[in-house]
Structures are given as structure tokens and as C-alpha cells.
């Protein structure tokens, strides 16, 4: 398969859903074909988004999916049609700007005589599969479709989302919700062994074999005896590594924090930000973590809430209010 980089809306990357390994592989192929067809029809189409028909052949699809058993592929079609993903913008339901969204991944899948296959994708989900904004995740199709665990697939997308930031913190509760595992692997040890470690081992092994562009290292952040979050460090190579080397992260963090906290208008904020920056510069790992938090905030929160949200984060993690 020719190397291809695809993009999807960050709301797909972070939304709540669980797909099987085969369902997710089908989705990767669909994302590619949706984007290819979108580019072809974009100029001449009167309607930017309408229900889209995707056509392929059983021979091509089976080859791409790495699955010779057509019955299993058809079963994946059936289950994928019943799946949906759910997303909200994190605001209270009473907030006038609250948004909630749920939609099926495909409307139908049809295996026609002669080995021709047809999918219909709803116009409601199409915008999530084309990069119309800067809030998207770019990933390598070859890597994504070759992964053998659905948890490796989800972690791979998360790593690609945070690659330029060098890492992020993943709240365990939020991660369970994102993976639709609130009622499964209840004990953290089970969740770690069945989900986190499975993804970690596969991605690291592929990275070492030069078959993946990213993997991750992680440490556990505890609240008492309970593991509350994972501190994720993204290890990457290739073009993104070269870009990362040229980026002055401290300058980006300083610039964003000065702007978000309006330091020219609010001297007390300036003093706190300067103290926080002094700490971060001496603790490089934390600097990249804050860079990731700022990126997440700007990508997922309304602009008027950036300062309030980051203030609460910094209060919890760096005792910001007492700086």
C-alpha cells in the first residue's frame, strides 16, 4: 500500500466510541476514500456536503484490510452500521453554547454481484472526515490499518494528535469514557494490562522495527493510592521530529500565556505567568505538558473560556493561585 497521510477532525479522535479492529480498519479506508472523493467533487459541487456514496471492490478492500474471510468483513459492515460516535464540547447543558452530537459512521454497506461494494456515508458526519479547520489529527494510513489491537489504533490517533506538543496528560476517567469502557476493566490494573500496555507494547515494537512513526512512554500520576492520570511522552521520528527541533516551545508557551491571560492589562496575571514560566523552563517535561494543554484548550474550548479553563488546570497542578 502506498504511504498516505490522512486527517480527521479532533472531535473524531477524542469522541466516545468503541469499534472492533476490523470496523476501525474499514473506517480508515473510508476516511481515505471520502477525502479523495471530496477533493474530486469539491470544485464542481453545488452542495458542499450531501450523503456520499463510496464504491470499491471486494478484491481491493480485502487486500487492504488484510482479511480473506469475506464473512468476517460483512459482519464488520453490519456492526459498523449500528455503531455511532458521541461528542460534546464539555460545557454544562444549561450553557447556551452547549453542543452535543451523535451520528452513525455509515448509513449502509452493500456487497453487490460481481464483487462491487458500496457504502453510503451521511452528510452529517462528512465534515469530520475532511480537514476544514486547523483542529485535526494527521496520521499514517499504513501504520493505522496495520495495527492488530483496537486500543493501539486509538492510542496511535491520540499520539498523532499530540505529536507536535511532545506529549500530554490523559485523565483515566476521561480515557475510559473516550474508549467507551466505563463499565469494563473496572480495576485500574485490569485497564492497564488489557488496554494501555497492549497499545504501548505494540506501538513500541513497531517503532523499533521502523514500522510506526510514533510510540509513547508514560508514567502514572496518583491521587493517594489511585492512579488519576497518565503523563504521556510522544516519541516520534520523520518530518515531524525535524519540525519539533526547530520550534522554540518556551517562546510559544510564553506568547500564548501572555495573550490568554492578558498580562498587559492584568499585572497580577503577568507576575504569576512569569513565575510559572521560570518553573517550566527548569522542568522541560512540564514545559511540553503545558504546551499540550494550551493546544488542547485552543482546539476544544471557546475562546472566551480559555483563561478560566487554564487557570483551573494550573491551580490544580501548579498551585497557580499562590504563585
- H/E element sequence: EHHEHHEEEEEHHEHHEEHHHHH
Strand percentage, roughly? Answer: 15-25%
CATH class of the largest domain: Mainly Alpha
Task: Say how many strands there are.
Answer: 10
Helix count, DSSP H or I runs of 4 or more residues: 13
Work out the count of structural domains. 3
Q: For the largest sheet, list the strands in their spatial order.
A: 2-6-5
Content-based structural category:
alpha+beta
Largest sheet: 3 strands, antiparallel
Distance between the termini: 53 Å
What is the CATH-assigned architecture of the largest domain? Answer: Orthogonal Bundle
- Tell me the radius of gyration: 21 Å
Describe this structure in words.
- The protein is of the alpha+beta class and 323 residues long.
- The protein has 3 domains: 1-146, Orthogonal Bundle (Arc Repressor Mutant, subunit A); 147-235, Arc Repressor Mutant, subunit A (Orthogonal Bundle), CATH 1.10.10.10; 248-322, no CATH class.
- 50% of the residues lie in helices and 20% in strands.
- It has 13 helices and 10 strands.
- The strands form 4 sheets. The protein has a 3-stranded antiparallel sheet.
- A hairpin with a 3-residue loop joins β5 (108-112) and β6.
- The chain is globular, with a radius of gyration of 21 Å.
- The model is unreliable at 239-247 (pLDDT under 50).
